[in-house]
Design goal:
Elements (H helix, E strand, L loop, with lengths): L1 H19 L11 H13 L3 H14 L6 H15 L3 H14 L6 H15 L8 H16 L6 H28 L3 H14 L5 H15 L3 H14 L4 H6 L10 H5 L13
Helix pairs in contact: 2-3, 2-4, 3-4, 4-5, 5-6, 6-7, 7-8, 8-9, 8-10, 9-10, 10-11
């Protein structure tokens, strides 16, 4: 019984060693075309490490004008992304955009680069450096390829990214509000309304801004914000509660003589 177990263990070890033996060896490929084809097969088989090795070598060996070079950057970036290596993926996609801005893959690569950077900013509470780089990458796509079919997608994702920035400022405001540092809290709440007025967080920031103004008896400022809130959210129960007892801002005679304007698309910078 023990002898049989030993033989089985030895057999399994040999099988494991055979499975670990590398089948993809760069030295086997004598030219760039065969290496590209082999690397692509590895990519399609989801052998990401092998695909990365092959395409990485191609990005250094291919001539600058070779049509396989932008494709090699694309698959290298995609393989890194599938490995969860977001920074390496973003850098490879960016290289494609920088080196081949007129290639048919360039706008797609700009979008994917922005997405990879965005994935590295996992939570609003963390350092926002990668979020800033992501936003810049989205703007690169919009600036370089204004007619791209990807623009609506990019604009939607920019909105989601900007809301994370808004949440970060809002949370900072709440931190200071909770410590009764109302002047500091006001700076962060106003920052949300100034920079991210169309974000879902803007309404919550405006409500907290009113509360902060009331705490330090800034009645006119609270009145200005409540006037905007009532116009924009006429049936909102939270607005009614927070702005209870706060009058609308007094209009000048000139403004009063005009018909009421439609609610603004976004609150003004406060």
């Amino acid at each position: 019984m023990q002898r049989t177990s030993w033989r089985l263990a030895a057999t399994l070890s040999l099988v494991a060693l055979a499975a670990c033996r590398p089948e993809f060896e760069l030295k086997k490929f004598t030219n760039n075309e065969t290496l590209y084809s082999a690397s692509l097969r590895e990519f399609q088989r989801q052998h990401w490490d092998n695909a990365i090795s092959g395409f990485e070598k191609l990005t250094t060996d291919l001539p600058a004008r070779d049509s396989l070079l932008p494709r090699s950057y694309w698959y290298l970036a995609s393989a890194h992304e599938n490995q969860g290596e977001h920074l390496l993926a973003a850098q490879s996609w960016s290289r494609l955009v920088e080196t081949f801005p007129d290639d048919s893959l360039a706008d797609d690569a700009a979008l994917e680069s922005a997405r990879s950077y965005a994935r590295m900013w996992r939570k609003p509470q963390l350092d926002a450096n990668y979020g800033e780089i992501s936003l810049a990458s989205y703007n690169t796509l919009i600036g370089l390829y204004p007619d791209s079919k990807l623009i609506p997608t990019a604009q939607k994702e920019i909105g989601q990214l900007e809301n994370k920035f808004a949440v970060k400022d809002f949370d900072n405001g709440n931190y200071y509000y909770g410590r009764k540092a109302f002047d500091s809290a006001i700076i962060y709440y106003k920052d949300v309304l100034t920079k991210y007025a169309n974000s879902p967080t803007a309404r919550d920031a405006a409500l907290k801004l009113v509360q902060a103004y009331k705490k330090i008896h800034y009645r006119e400022d609270a009145s200005d914000v409540c006037t905007e809130l009532r116009q924009r959210y006429p049936r909102d129960g939270d607005v009614k509660d927070v702005c209870s007892g706060v009058p609308d801002a007094v209009r000048t005679d000139t403004a009063a003589a005009k018909p009421p304007a439609k609610p603004p698309a976004k609150p003004p910078a406060l």
